[in-house]
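User: I'm preparing a small set of examples for a lab meeting where we compare how different chains pack in three dimensions. I only have the primary sequence for this one, and I'd like the structure in token form so I can line it up with the others. Please keep the answer compact; I'll paste it straight into my notes.
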Amino acid sequence: MPRSLQDILDHADELAKKLEDYEPTPDDEVEVAADLLRRAALGRARSERQVADAVVAARRAGVSWKRIGAELGVSAQGAQQRYGSVVEPA
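Assistant: Understood. Below is the structure token output for the 90-residue chain.
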């Protein structure tokens, strides 16, 4: 199911808020593998936020979509499709 970058970033913010507000109870004990997966997902969400923020800053500084795509390892069109709605909201 395709999701927009904004959906992913919003979900990351929701997850971060839940983790910040979390107060554990004895019933909350989790397997190590599940905890590692949760941490990896949070790290990925934070990284995606960092990339999105960097793309916004680059576009504001006049960096072309071609250059942004090259830095991200995708085409200019791919970069614009993924991050364009964050940089230039409709």
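A couple of notes for your slides: Residues 9 and 48 are 7 Å apart (CA to CA). Residues 32-60 form the longest helix (29 residues).

User: Perfect, thanks.
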